[in-house]
Fold this sequence. Notes:
Blueprint: H1 2-7, H2 12-31, H3 43-55, E1 58-59, E2 69-70, H4 75-94, H5 121-129, H6 136-151, H7 155-159, E3 166-167, E4 172-173, E5 175-176, E6 182-183
Antiparallel strand pairs: 1-2, 3-4, 5-6
Amino acid sequence: FRLFNRSENKSPRTVQWYDDSLRVFLGWLEETEKSTLLGDLNIALVREFIVWQQDKTVKHEHHPFAPPCEGALSSHTIQSRVRALRSFCHWLQREGYTDKHILEDLSVPKVQKNLVEILTEDEIKAILAAIDRDTAGGGRNYAIVWTLLDTGLRCSELTGLGFGDAHLEEGYLRVLGKGNKERV
């Protein structure tokens, strides 16, 4: 499945997302002593997995960078993992490992729609005032914060910028974004 995703020229982050989602599912199967045989995979089992995720009270248990903390998983995380499992099962069927798409009839859980709280003008001023622009790191951080505020770039897009992407005289940035889509 990993080779398939890479051969389809999916981004490294997308390939990693599939790997991580399947690893969490496999870890749950092993932890709960459920069968890891492909023939035992079914909708009822995945529904148990969904409910287990919804009932979790600790986030980031096996995350390589974030420490474990109290709190429920977001509905986006749970939906994302189910979508990865559905894609995996679709791939299994296309490749002939299974006769049918095992999770074809499984609906993905709905996500909560929360309004994004925007920063107030006073909050923005406080953030910018907290940065010491007289140091190299502070000057860089000031530029980063302003760029994020002014453009709405994703953090990953900003960190992926190179000198050749900045066209300061013309007043624009060329960004390679999500899905390898180029934006100006």
